[in-house]
Amino acid sequence: MIDINATLxxxxxxxxxxxxxxxxxxxxxxxxxxxxxxxRIQESLNKADADVAEADKLLAEYKAKLAxxxxxxxxxxxxxxxxxxxxxxxxRAEMKREIEQMRKAAQAEIxxxxxxxxxxxxxxxxxxxxxAAGKIIAxxxxxxxxxALVAEFVDKLNKDKIGDLPC
Length: 167
Prior knowledge:
mainly alpha
């Protein structure tokens, strides 16, 4: 059993004094230090949460800016392709116009050359006809009959036509 004597009472009293002194000088400062540490840790956690929220906000902003930049780039590419297509079509139309003008000019030149050739041929035929007719009937026909014969020959040439052009 427990023997209650003065030593036990002195030990209990010493223990209580020690607890009071430790509480006054050690426990309260340790509790304050732990409370301050807990506050610093909580503050760091709050700051980390705020940093994460800020990072998420910045990430969302960067993603939005990236999407906007991609959309702008796509628009620029589409506009460039459209302009290139329009320029290609414009060049093609201009080339067609030039070809058509060249074709019309060539057709007009061909028509002029053909007319010129027909005129030359007519003049040559008249000259040859006149020479031949002159030799054949030089003695028998007078000048008025000769002109009538030439006129009849030219009328016959105009009537028969050479190709699709009149003589």
